[in-house]
Amino acid sequence: CALIVAGEVLVAVFGDHTNGEDRRVEDVISSYQEPAFQIFIILMTLYLVQLGIFIRVFPKRSLLRKVAWGSIGGSITGFQNFLKDALTIFDVTTNESSTSLSSNGNGSLPPAFFLFVFLAMLTSFVGLLFLAACMKRYDATYSAAMFVVSFVVSASLMSSVHYHTFDHLDGFINYVMYPLGLTTLFMGAFLLVKPIAVGGCPSDDGEHGSIEEFSYSDLNGGGGGERNGDYRERLLNGE
User: Fold this and answer.
1) 208 φ/ψ angles, rounded to the nearest 5 degrees
2) Which of 17, 81, 87, 220 sees the fewest Cβ atoms within 10 Å?
3) pTM to 2 decimal places
């Protein structure tokens, strides 16, 4: 988890912090018609569908299923463009209204604002629902850490396509440290989901390991479970 926290700090410190004060409402709406962003939306939708397939198809103790449960919530919540664009439209509209420069003359918010607010609430709520579902099946530390990783990665990819993040980085250090932060996040996630040699893997019904699956082999070595099973069978048969 230390690598995940360090990577998140690097991304936050050396990332893009522009707020788009010079954008108009028309610019915000037209940005959704850019082919690059539309392709990104399609690819992210296919990625989320693939995670859903992993959750539905793979067995409960599958590593892919565990990674899918940990990643899907943060990936959905990473669509922070709806919230940011809604705030941009609100700021631009209120400023135009206060200076009597509103295009419609009354300073009312355009329909796109309410659509973006709805989509922002929807993606956040659905993402948190998946996080809660993941916590019911796996350790809370794993669930929260993977949510943060997938959220930061999804938001960073969205920002690079929709807001052209790398065009607004300040200086050579930012160009180095920002990707380094993302790489550190990936390393932390890899170490987090790596199979553990000792102990049980959290199951899909909320049980974190099974004592019966490991106790005999741990106490008696290889084959100990089979010997104890034969002993129990003889006791049941009265031998």
Assistant:
1) -95, 80
2) 17
3) 0.69
